[in-house]
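User: Continuing from earlier, I have the next pair ready.

Assistant: Great, send them over.

User: Here they are, in order.

Assistant: Folding the first of the pair now:
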Amino acid sequence: QVQLVESGGGLVQPGGSLRLSCAASGFTFSSYFMSWVRQAPGKGLEWVSNINTGGGSTYYADSVKGRFTISRDNAKNTLYLQMNSLKPDDTALYYCAKYSANNYDYWGQGTQVTVSS
């Protein structure tokens, strides 16, 4: 069965960095676009970033552009999100999601990122 397991979240000071990982299994990882989506406390889901199957095309929300970098290692079935210059507004539960047929059909359990001094 499809599994997506995020890791790498934690508490970081403003201006700091974190690298999130998402280990995928149960499907042909290299055949699917993948995404990061976040949910801040008391707010709805916010799309963060997409990456195409080969990793050569990436897309970002304006709120993270220039600070976050999405990447993937298809040999390791792993998706990454490098987050730099973190702000308190980046505090959220971060999910990786498999994108198929214009829909997010599988989600991980999420990893918490808290940006606070």
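And the other member of the pair:
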Amino acid sequence: QVQLVESGGGLVQPGGSLRLSCAASGSIFSIAVMNWYRQAPGKQRELVAGITVGGTRNYADSVKGRFTISRDNAKNTMYLQMNSLKFEDTAVYYCKLGTVVTPAGVRDYWGQGTQVTVSS
């Protein structure tokens, strides 16, 4: 069984920074891709950023130049450094691990979500 623990959310003023973490534990052989999604009230969940096991990154246009995704493959942990935060970044942020290979098979996993609130 794979467990995901997200942390790092909170309340921050516009222009501030936060760093989110998503740590996976369990019998994991590999994780092909790690993604951050977010969902604001009344809106659909959207992809914020993703990173492959090889380090290829992609970002939503709305966060390019402000957010940086990274991962530590040895620790099965992913990070999202968020700088220059804006009001519109307020949302619940979810990590998603794609194509996770374990002794039980291959599947995706979602984290429980962490609230990020940008407010003055």
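Worth noting for the second one:
The longest strand covers residues 91-102. The radius of gyration is 14 Å.
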